[in-house]
Amino acid sequence: MTEIKIFENFLNDEVFFDLKSALRPGGGFPWGFHLSNVAELGPEIHLQNNQFSHVLYQHDPLEIPFDALGQLGDRAWEGCSQLAKIVAPVLQKINPFMLVRAKANLLTYSGGTSFFGGFHTDTPREDICVTGILYLDTCDGPTGFEGGKKVDAVANRLVTFPAFVRHGSWTATDVPYRRVINFNWIPF
């Protein structure tokens, strides 16, 4: 099995609280609704297989958005969500060579039965990227990996793995929603 790393209490409490609060449903964060994995799972289950999301940052990995000192320069944020800079504390800790994408996901309560949304990868550059998932909520909706491994959703936990590893999310049955931020980056 490919190495899956788990980092507990990834951000300090104050920074994590601010990040979690900024992505609160009903708090002004621009969540967009869409159906997910319909092509893979089929349209007959589309009522269960949906989510809210917001792409905070996305860049072509062939463009290098760094300044002369090797830091993410202001131009790195061009064309991205106005809210992209809220993930800066995470970037300081993961220290990517290049961030490819940061995307917030929200799955809603699924009733008494958890639903698995299917396996996927997050980036076409899975050959050179790392994927990270920062959990904003503790709930019974884990992340599943091909091969059967699951990582529980625990607030302020970061799980990282090679981007070619297929993974998917389970909906929660014990909270109103399950929120994560997915990161894809090229490491040094």
How do the helices and strands line up, and which of them pair or pack?
Elements: E1 5-7, H1 13-22, E2 32-35, H2 38-41, E3 50-58, H3 88-94, E4 98-108, E5 130-135, E6 139-145, E7 150-153, E8 158-162, E9 167-169, E10 177-186
Antiparallel strand pairs: 1-8, 2-3, 3-4, 4-10, 5-8, 5-10, 6-7, 6-9
Question: Would you summarize the structure shown here?
Answer:
This protein has helices at residues 13-22, 38-41, 88-94; strands spanning 5-7, 32-35, 50-58, 98-108, 130-135, 139-145, 150-153, 158-162, 167-169, 177-186. With 188 residues, it is mainly beta. It has a 7-stranded antiparallel beta sheet with strand order 1-8-5-10-4-3-2, with no helix packed on it. It has a 3-stranded antiparallel beta sheet with strand order 7-6-9, with no helix packed on it.
Q: Which fold does the CATH topology refer to?
A: Jelly Rolls
* CATH fourth-tier homologous superfamily: q2cbj1_9rhob like domain
Question: Into which percentage range does the β-strand content fall?
Answer: 25-35%
DSSP summary, beta strand count = 10
Architecture overview:
- The chain is mainly beta.
- It has one domain: Sandwich (Jelly Rolls).
- Helices cover 11% and strands 33% of the residues.
- The chain is built from 3 helices and 10 strands.
- It has helices spanning 13-22, 38-41, 88-94; strands at 5-7, 32-35, 50-58, 98-108, 130-135, 139-145, 150-153, 158-162, 167-169, 177-186.
- Strands 1-8-5-10-4-3-2 form a 7-stranded antiparallel β-sheet, with no helix packed on it. The chain has a 3-stranded antiparallel β-sheet with strand order 7-6-9, with no helix packed on it.
- A hairpin with a 4-residue loop joins strand 6 and strand 7.
- The longest helix is centred in the first third of the chain and has 10 residues, at 13-22.
- The two termini are 23 Å apart.
- The model has no long low-confidence stretch (mean pLDDT 85).
